[in-house]
Write a structure and sequence with these properties.
With about 270 residues, the chain is mainly alpha-helical. Helix content is about 60%, strand content about 5%. Strands 1-2 form a two-stranded parallel sheet. A two-stranded antiparallel ribbon has the order 3-4. Strand 5 and strand 6 form a beta hairpin. Belongs to the UPF0162 family. InterPro entries: SirB1_N. It holds the Pfam family Transglut_core2.
Length: about 270
């Protein structure tokens, strides 16, 4: 089974094998990897984590779990510019640093194994976690509790002081949504690193995992443009045009399509 098919098969399990699916995404970019070996590393990490957890009810162990990861030097990658390795879960196990989503995926896997209730929250700009029924969220990078005011401040630091916090920002998300976000992260980082073929793999996976938005099609159109593939670029521009409601951007997309159609070589 190829890595992408294996990833999708993991999501079809009940419950979905989320962390293993993320490992198969890493295999797409690093074919020498063996997910079974990496899962054995998680087995060992699970033992270290469990030994340091306090004797509390399972629903109170999510924050101690995250703090144990911090004690073991798992932390957010603050390298600038950020590289694709920050979004690959196999390298998180090796380097002990990564993006918030990557850290969250590991925390969710450990919580599942230790029967600690924990959910992912697709918060804009900084993936978060929550215990079902709790009045706060948790930062996967530190275990810090985030209440409504903290979430609003985090959102405004990311997107500006006039950004409004919405109830939809605080809802739990499903495994496909998490892997789609992981794929978008990787697509962006591979584009930033000038690795268009790797970025194209991620862009295609984004569309396989769920509904694509305007930006997803524009991002893939730009990758196709870089790879000198006008047919693919035109397809994604047409999809973007269908999803676009903003008049100025619609005009720009139409002009780009006309220029592309006038090109003598479509392949």
């Amino acid at each position: 089974m190829d890595p992408r098919a294996a990833c999708l098969a993991c999501l079809e399990q009940q419950p979905p094998a989320l962390f293993e699916a993320a490992l198969w995404i890493a295999v797409e970019h690093q074919p020498h990897l063996h997910p079974a070996d990496l899962l054995r590393q998680v087995d060992s990490l699970q033992q270290h984590i469990a030994q340091g957890l306090p004797n509390l009810p399972a629903k109170e162990l999510a924050q101690p779990l995250l703090r144990r990861l911090t004690e073991l030097n798992f932390h957010e990658d603050d390298e600038q510019p950020l590289r694709p390795q920050a979004a690959l879960v196999n390298l998180l196990l090796q380097r002990r640093c990564g993006q918030p989503l990557t850290l969250a995926l590991l925390a969710l896997e450990l919580a599942r194994r230790l029967e600690i209730p924990l959910q992912g929250v697709n918060f804009p700009g900084h993936f978060l976690l929550r215990v079902p029924g709790a009045d706060h969220l948790l930062d996967p990078c530190s275990g810090r509790r985030l209440y409504t005011r903290d979430c609003r401040e985090l959102l405004q630091r990311q997107y500006g002081p006039h950004t409004e916090l919405s109830a939809s920002h605080l809802l739990p998300c499903d495994p496909r949504s998490m892997l789609q976000r992981l794929s978008r992260n990787l697509r962006h980082l591979h584009q930033q690193a000038d690795e268009p073929l790797a970025a194209l793999r991620d862009a295609e996976r984004v569309l396989l995992l769920g509904s694509a938005n305007l930006h997803d099609h524009l991002a893939r159109a730009d990758i196709y443009q870089q790879l000198d593939c006008p047919q693919g670029e035109r397809f994604d521009l047409q999809c973007a045009l269908l999803l676009c409601d903003e008049p100025t951007q619609r005009l720009q997309l139409s002009q780009r399509l006309r220029l592309l159609s006038a090109s003598p070589a479509l392949h």
